[in-house]
Protein 1
Amino acid sequence: MHATLPLLKATDFPPLRRRAVDTLQVNLGYTCNQSCLHCHVNAGPNRTEQMDRETIDRVLDVLAAKKIRMLDITGGAPELNAYFRDLVREARALGVHVIDRCNLTILFEPGQEGLAEFLARHEVEVVASLPCYSQDNVDRQRGSGVFDKSVQALLALNALGYGVDERLPLSLVYNPQGPSLPPPQAALEADYRRELQLHYGIVFTRLLALANMPIARFGSTLISKGQFRDYMAKLRGAHMHANLEHVMCRSLVSVDWQGFLYDCDFNQMLGMPLREGDAQGRLTHGRLHLADWLALDLEGNPIVVADHCYGCTAGQGSSCGGALG
C-alpha cells in the first residue's frame, strides 16, 4: 500500500487550537468483517489490533476525571472487541452518551447475537455506514451482499425503536464513490428518506455526508490511479475558511487501540500523535497517552495539521458529525 503521509506533511493549512474537550472518540481495534475501499482505517478481517481491558479502564478513568459527556466508539468493527459491551455499560453508568459507529452487517456475525437489543437497552446512539441507497453502489464499494444485510439490519433497528424513538437516534453515513466531494447534505438526506421509505419502509434520524480522506486505503488507491494530486487540488480549491470554526478536532480527542492520543482519527491513521504545546505554540516531540492526560489540561493546545485537513474544510465541510456548513 502506498504511504500518503510524505505527500501531506508539507502544508499551509491554517493553525488551530483546541477548545474544551466534549467528545472522546475511541478506536477499539482495526479488526472488521468488511474491507471497504473508502476506509481510512485500512480495517479488515486480517487486522488483529485490539484494545485490552487495562486500556479500557483508562478510557473510563478519563471520562470520569475530565467529565466528558460523549463517548464515540469506532473501529474496525468496534463490536468485535471483547470488552465492547463492558465499555458501553460502564460508560452509560457514568451518565455518558455513547455512540456506536456500526457497519450494520456486524449484527449478523457469529457471536453478535442480541447486539441490536443490547444497544437499544442501553440507549446507545447508532451511526451506521450506508454509503448509498442503491444496492449496486453499496455492493461495489463494500462487497457483494452488503446492501441486503444492511437493509435487514436497519429494519431490525427500526423494530426496536431506532429512528422512531428520540432516545434511540439512528444516523446513516454517506461517502462518495470516488475522488469527489459529497453533494449537499440536506438534499441528499431527502433522497435517502424517500428511497429507503418507498422501497424498504426504513426510517432514520439524520444523514451524515462525509468526504473521503486521501489517506490509508483510499489515498493509496488514488496514488495507484494517478488521481492523488487532482483530488488534493479539489480539496484545497474548495476550502471554506468559515469551516475552521467547527472542525471536530477542536473539541474531540481520538484514542487508538493502545491508548495513545490524537487530534482526530485521521491523524491517528497517519501516525501523527497529539502533542503538548507551550505558550508559543511549539509542540513537544513525545506522544501522549490516556494516563498522561489525567494530569494535563489540553484546552488551548495547538492541533497537529497536514494537507489532509483540507478534507474537513472543503465545500460544506466534513466531520464525524457530517457536514459543517
Protein 2
Amino acid sequence: MEDQLIGRVLRSSTIGYACGTRSNELDGPSFGAFVRTYTEDGSDPVTDVIGLIYAIRIDDDPLVRQLIMANQLNPVTLRDQRENRMIPVEISVVNIGYRINGQSLHNMPPRPARSLDPVCLCDNACIRGFTDRFDFFRLVLNTTEVPSEDLLAAALKHAAAARPVREQREFLVEAGRRLAQLLSHDLARLNHLLRLIKP
C-alpha cells in the first residue's frame, strides 16, 4: 500500500508535533489514527517517527465568518468554500515510538521531526508491526496533553482494523489484558477503557 501524505510538519518536539494540511485533503486522517513522519533525504537513521492523531483543528478565515452571517447559504457557495478554497487545517500528533533499521521502539524518539518533513498515514503492515507489542500503552496513558483513554481506545480500534477479521477480537482481548495489568490500581479508568475497546 502506498503512503498517503496528509500534511507537513509545522512545529515539533520529542513529545509530538503539529502538521498542516488543507481542508480538501482531510479524508484520511481521523482521531486515533497512526501516522509517521520521516526525513525525505534519508540523512537521519531514525527514519520513521510513529505517532497518534489526537486533535484536528480547522481554522476559519474572513470569508467563512461572512458566510455564517448570511441568512441563506447558497449550496454552490458552500461547495466552492469546501472544495476550492484552501482553509488551513492543523493536525496534532503525540509521538509513541519510532522505527530504526526496521525495528520498532516504543519510547520517545531521540530528536523531533524537522519543519516541513512529510506526515503520512501508516499502512496496515506498519500498524501491525508496531502494535505487535503493547509497550506504547504507558506512553499514551501518561501523556497529560491528550485525552489519553479515548485516544488509546481509538488507536486500538485502528490497530484491530489493520488486522484480518479473524484476528481482530483476539487482538482487542489481549490489549484488554495488558490494560488490566497497567491499570489495576485505577479500576474506574480501566473499566472506562475496556468499555471503549469492547469487541
Protein 3
Amino acid sequence: MDLPVTQPLTESLLASRQTSALTLLLRGLRKAFGDVVAVAGIDLDVASGECFGLLGPNGAGKTTTIEICEGLTPPDAGTVQILGLDWQHNATALRQRIGIQLQETQFPDKLSVEETLRLFRSFFRRGIAADEAIRIAQLDEKRNARVGTLSGGQKQRLAMAAALVGDPELLFLDEPTTGLDPQARRHLWDLVDELKKSGRTVILTTHYMDEAERLCDRVAIMDHGRIIALGTPQQLIASIGGDHIVEFAVSGHGALDPQRFTAIAGVQSHRVDAGLHQLSVINLHSTVPQIFAAIGALGLELTEFRTHSATLEDVFVALTGRNLRDE
C-alpha cells in the first residue's frame, strides 16, 4: 500500500532504522484460557509505517492478541513474525526494537519523571535521550515531579515516553486513553500524531471508535476472538451502505412495519434497539421528509429524533446487531 511521506521529529529518531514492507504478520493465531477461546484463528498483516487499529469491546480478544505479539503471552497455535523475526528464536533482538505501552503501567512513585525515563533508557543498547522523550511526551514542566504526584493523563504520557526511549521501530499502544478525561485523551491523540509523523509503525488497541477514526490508517474490528471487518475507516463506514444514521422513537398504538421504511428511497437498512429505530440512509434532505410522512401516516408520534454521520460504531452495530459497549 502507498504510505504518506512524513517528516521525522528529529534525525535521531530515524537514524539507522531498518524498514521492511511488512512489520507484523499473523497466521492462524489461536489462544484459549481453559474453555474460553480468546483468539480464534487470526490472520493479519501490518505494513511498515502504518498506524493500525485493533478495535472491539472488552473481551473481544484485542489485548490477548497484542500480548502475543509483544511476546508476553505464548500462542496455542499459529505464526507470529515481528519485523521479520519471531519470539522463539529472536526474543533479545525484538525487545530492543519494539516499544510497549500497557493498559496500566506501574512506576515507582518516589522516582521523578526524569529518573524514571533514565532508568528505562538504560535497558536499551541504543535509543533517544531521556530529555528527548520528555519533550515528545510534553512533560517538560513535570521533569522533576515524583511519579506519585502525576495525574492519570500525565502518567499515560510518561508510559508513552518510557515506550519511546529505546527508539522503537514498532510501538504497541494497548488502550492508551482508557479512563482519561477528554482533554487528556486529546493530548495523547496529539502525541500519537507526532509518532505517526516520525515514520514509526504503531499498533493501537481501543474500544473508542472515534479514536480509531481519528488516528488509524487501517482498522480491524474484533468480536469473540475473530476479525469481523478489516479496512480503512472510510472503507468500513462505506460498507454499511449509508452516509448517515437516522435514529427515532415513537409512541402510539399503530403498528410499525419495518418494510415501510426500507421501501423509502435512500434507506439502506433498519433495525430496532430498545425501542429506538435506526435507519442507515444516503441522502438526509430527501429521506427525512419521507420518514416523517411514514410515521404520520401510521398515526404515531415522534418522541425522539436525531441524525449523525455514520461512524465505525455504526459498522460494529451493523455487523453484530449490538452496540460496542453492550458487554
Protein 4
Amino acid sequence: MKDTRDLLFPSDFPSIRRGQLHTLQLNLGYLCNLSCTHCHVNAGPKRTELMSLDTIELVLELAQKRDIRCIDMTGGAPEMNPHFRYLVERASSMGIELIDRCNLTILLEPGYEDLAEFLAAHKVGICASLPCYTEANVAEQRGKGVFDDSIVALKKLNQLGYGRQQGLDLDLVYNPNGAFLPPAQGPLEADYKRILGQQFDISFDHLLTITNMPISRFGAVLYAKGEFQNYVQLLKDNFKADNLAALMCRNLVSVDWQGYVYDCDFNQMLDLPMPAGSDADIIAATAKKHLRDLLEQDLSGKTIAIAEHCYGCTAGQGSSCSGAL
C-alpha cells in the first residue's frame, strides 16, 4: 500500500494556532471487526495495537488537571479495547462528556451483547458510522452484510432511548464512497431521517458529513487509481477561509494508543508531531509529545502542524469530527 505522506508536503495551507483545550480524542487501538475502504487508520481484525491501562490512567489524570470537558473515543473499534468499560466508568463518574465512535456492528458481536445497555447506563453519546442509507453503498465501503447488521444495531439503540429525545445522543456519520466532497449536510440529514424512518422506523439526532482524507488506506486507493493529485486539488479549489475559525484542532488533542499526542487524528495517522516552536519548525519537528508533557504544558497559542490534507477540513461546508463547520 502506497504511503502518501510525502505527497502532502510542502503545503500553502494557512498557519493556524490553538485555543483552549477542552477535548481529548483517544485512539484506543487499531483492532476492529471491520476493514473499511475509507478508513484512515487502516484498522482491522488482525491489528494488535491497543491502549494500555497505564496510558488510560494518564488520560484520566490529564483530564482532571486540564479540566477536560469531553473524551471522544475512537479506534478501530474503541469498544474492543479491554479497558474500554473501565475508562467509561471512571470518566463518567468525573462528569466528563463521553462520545463513542461506534461502527454499530460491534454491538452484535459475541461478547458484546450487553454493550449497548452499558453505553446507555453511562449516558455515552454514540457517533455511529453509516456511510449511506442504501445497502449497496454501505457494502461497497464496509463489506457485505454490514448494512443489515447496522440496521439491527440502530433499532436496538432506539429501543434503549438513543435518538429518541431521551437524553441519549445518537448521531450518524456519512463518508463519500469516492473522490468527491460530501453533499450539503442539512438536506442529506433530511433524506437519511426520511428514508431510515419510513423503511426501518429508525430515528437519530444529527447526521455528520465528514470528508475523506487523502491519507492511509483512502490515500493509497486514490494513488493507485491515479486520482490522488486531482483529489487534493479538488479540496484546495473548494477552500473556504471562514472554516478556519471552527477547526477542531484548535481545541482538541488527539492521543494515540501509546499516549503520544497530536494536533488531530489525521496528523496522528501521518505521524506528524506537534510543532516544536515556530512555523518553520513544523515539518522538521521530530520529537513527539506525550500525555506526560501535557500535564506540565499549556498548548494555548501553539502552532498547529499542517500539510495538504488540512484542506479536507476547510473544503466546501468544512469537515470535522462534529460534521460540517
